[in-house]
Amino acid sequence: xxxKPLLPIKLTIPTLPRVVARERLFYHxxxxxxxxxxxxxxxxxxxxxxxxxxxxNQQKRKALWYQLDAGDQDPAVWFGFLRQGFSRLAPRxxxxxxx
Length: 99
Prior knowledge:
The longest helix is centred in the C-terminal third of the chain and has 15 residues, at 75-89. The protein starts with 22 loop residues before the first helix and ends in a 10-residue tail after the last helix. It has helices at 23-31, 48-59, 75-89. It is built from three helices and no strands. 36% of the residues lie in helices and 0% in strands. The chain has 99 residues and is an all-alpha fold.
């Protein structure tokens, strides 16, 4: 079996040290799971990344992680990384279609 290629850092959920599970905030994220996108906002250093990464690690859910940076101002770059993330999240079947 051929190993999957590594993803760029910007598409990789951060590895965390031991952190306190934020059960009240996890509850709110669970409550919003029927939505296709969840936006987490707050000031720098408030724990947004830690919350999202610890929630995804605890719940074992599939997710597309995309960390924005200054290089994402070019739509071609942004969509290229987004496509790469989606292809890892939901790979296409290699079997030929049924007749």
